[in-house]
Write a structure and sequence with these properties.
By secondary structure, the chain is of the alpha+beta class. The protein is built from 2 helices and 14 strands; from the N terminus they run H-H-E-E-E-E-E-E-E-E-E-E-E-E-E-E. It has a 5-stranded antiparallel sheet with strand order 6-5-4-1-7, with no helix packed on it. Strands 13-12-11-8-14 form a 5-stranded antiparallel sheet, with no helix packed on it.
Length: about 170
């Protein structure tokens, strides 16, 4: 190990200064490109989907022969992680990963309440009147998220309003 370091330092003495500057410039550009691509990956848009059938089996692998993990119901929100030949690996609000047949997923968005009780307000303002409250694990239709920190939702009974994004998952 020490020998390689010594040889490399001797080689750098032989290489002209202009080449060293060019070489270091290329390394710096490569580093910048890697940083740009990694930061754009971090800012990538999450893909949220929902289940479009009443009872859908979630599997531990992309095959009907795989182990069945659990069953989810209509409108259950999931985050797509990867798409593979008619299957989608998804994450749920608890962080669990599973595979689901793509035909059972819809682009229609829903959110699930993740707090014990979520207040749904008349407008996207903490001081606006509470229209209704929803308990944990209730699924709400996602309508809009134009206001930072808020999601406009509709309950299956038709009531709608705004809920804080930190009280739901799937938006």
């Amino acid at each position: 190990m020490h020998l390689k370091t010594h040889v490399a330092s001797d080689m750098m003495k032989i290489i002209p200064d202009s080449f060293q500057i060019l070489f270091l410039g290329k390394i710096l550009r490569l580093f910048c490109l890697c940083f740009l691509f990694s930061s754009s990956y971090v800012n990538a848009q999450l893909e949220f989907l929902s289940v479009n059938e009443n009872a859908v089996v979630m599997y531990d692998a992309p095959s009907l022969k795989a182990d069945k993990l659990f069953v989810v119901g209509l409108h259950f929100p999931v985050e797509a992680i990867v798409h593979v030949e008619g299957w989608v690996k998804v994450r749920d609000s608890s962080g669990s990963l599973a595979w689901i047949e793509k035909k059972f997923l819809s682009d229609q968005k829903y959110v699930i309440v993740t707090t014990a009780v979520a207040d749904v307000h008349q407008s996207a303002d903490i001081n606006s009147p509470v229209v209704f409250q929803v308990v944990e694990n209730v699924i709400l239709e996602w309508l809009d998220s134009d206001t930072d920190g808020w999601v406009k939702v509709r309950h299956k009974n038709g009531n709608s309003g705004f809920v804080r994004t930190n009280q739901v998952w799937g938006s």
